[in-house]
Amino acid sequence: MPELPEVETIKRTLDKKITGLSITGVAITMLKIIREPNPEEFSKQITGSRITRLGRRGKYLLLYLTGDNVLVIHLRMTGRLVYSAPGEPPAKHTHVIFSLSDGYELRFIDMRQFGRLQLASQQALNQVKGLKDLGPEPLEREFTRTFLRRELKRKRVRIKSLLLDQTFIAGLGNIYTDEALHRAHLNPKRIANSLSPREVAKLYHAIIEVLQEGIENRGTSFRDYVDGDGRKGDYQELLRVYNREGSPCPHCGTAITRIKVNGRSSYFCPACQRE
């Protein structure tokens, strides 16, 4: 699933191309992709709207439109949003095509069909399911060491599971959680409220570092993720533990191990991240 750096990269690549353009038409071939309103009303409301700016909240991409509407997009597991030339044949699993006033198209592609598109008014954004309960943005001022220390002390759950909880911190997924825990030398099975102040500080900085590096390298691509231009990211070349089971830890040389934490695969170094 695209995480914060991937969605932020998509936002940045599309921002240069579609901000200021109008949506002149919508073609929907997979109706369930549209959460609300119904597909017919969705097309009616969005056609003729101009894209005023792009935003992001956690793993959600937000297209702000004239008329007070916001197009809320969640890519889920395999969703893509690509700016494409009209003469270019649509990729397989293209379910929604937005025609743009510059003659190009914005195409929503999703092999597993888990992604969702929804229209909401700006005033009702904080009522949208999924958006309304998100925790703080880890790259914004609201995410501080004081916040992290205070909230961790309240949680008697495994740190890996807590960091994946979008109501705790928005935007982290398996990739960047594993990378942050490795940099902070924390075992993914550690109980959150057992962390010392020094360990909390290390985790705080590690979260920010891996997310910033992910954005700088245009996200992580293994199979499905591409940016708004259809290009893969580069951060997979810099990962230290994620998806590197059996490879040597870049810090100590110990083989990276994969375990399950509450049903989720977790990659870590058993020497650097002792339980």
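^ that was protein a. below is b, sequence first then the tokens
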Amino acid sequence: MKNNTKISNILIAVGTFFIVSAVICFVYNFTQDKNADNFSGEIVSELTNEIPSHEENWKVYPFMDMPEKEIKGVKCIAILDIPALDLSLPVSSVWTDENLKIMPCRYSGSVYSDDIVIAGHNYRAHFGRINRLKQGDEITITDMDGNIFRYEVDVIDILEPTDIEEMKSGNWDLTFFTCNFSRSHRVTVRCLKAD
């Protein structure tokens, strides 16, 4: 009887530990998501005021560097708009762990060379809902000179975390991705330029 009581107490302690750990993780993730949402919103507001609007035709060249604007210590290259998810997000020019905590980041490529890849956390306020997108959904990227690039979702892929080359391969003009909640796969949205 004493052994059963001891085992029961151990199991209760272990269960309590896991419940408390889950609550702490939930609160941490919720706080990170909220902070990222607030920070991204502030940056998009500031960028929107600084980006010129174009009335005339413009020309870009594949070899051009994307212009940057530094806001709150982060160099941004674009605003990514995903109307189907009611998202308007800044895009950092450089992928770092710190930048990724507050906004999506360029993983590789450029809008000018039609091969940009953007990484984002799976926060609800960032890329956490991109698996809900459908073929034909509109995506726009506005660069820091006010040039607007229009895309349509072509396909949504599920990739392994180790498929780094696969992330950048293919004939898509825009790719953006995030990990799923368990981090076992990457939800990857492939887009083509809209006509």
